[in-house]
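Appendix B, record 7
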Amino acid sequence: MKTKDLSNQTSATYKMLRLGVAVIAFAFPLLLWIGGRLLAGLPLAGSMSAYYYTVMRDTFVGLLFAVGIILFVYQGYTRFEDWALNLAGGLALGIALFPVALASEPSHNPFSLHGVCAVSFFLCIAYVCIFRASDTLSLIHDRETRACYRRWYKFLGCAMVGFPVIAWILISNIPGEKSAIFFVELSGIYVFAMYWVVKSHEVRQTDSDRKAALGKLHVEPHGLSGAVRTLSITSADD
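Structure tokens (predicted):
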């Protein structure tokens, strides 16, 4: 009987983890918005976090836990990527476990533990986009293709920093019921989802998941200075 090559199964698992995070992220704002409208006739909330105090609480917490757990179990190509994703996974749980204060409460302020977790989450993913996503581009031989992916990653990373900043400015200066905050948060979450779509496309193009499963990928020796520079990942097939 012919033995089965399980490297494709490992590759498929990582592909589904990436796409699973992207699908959850794309669906998250719509489920809150549409679910709140259908189940309780709620108008659009001032922010996604405000749905914690509605009939959509279980959906809000459950999806954040799903994203957090996936990010935690997902193994990055370098230890720096893995650490950043693990931290982002923990922060996603923090967003769910530490709800935003109601706008009517005296304690309401933009520096809540909930807000710190949310902004830090996006900063972790921004770090992955800007500093770690390009590590695997050394597996792509075409210079123009590498440059295109690099531009995408830099853009998505900067956007992940920019949207939380915009949301914080809005929370600080306008009442919480204004829907502008919701749409800024939606944009940030969709940028997060887009990163995983682009990364999945790159990984499929280089077949890096399967090569990693077969032990054919190697990362250059590095110390802490590697945290802020691109690390070269090479394939034994090249």
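Remarks on this record: The chain has a mean pLDDT of 88. Residues 7-40 form the longest helix (34 residues).
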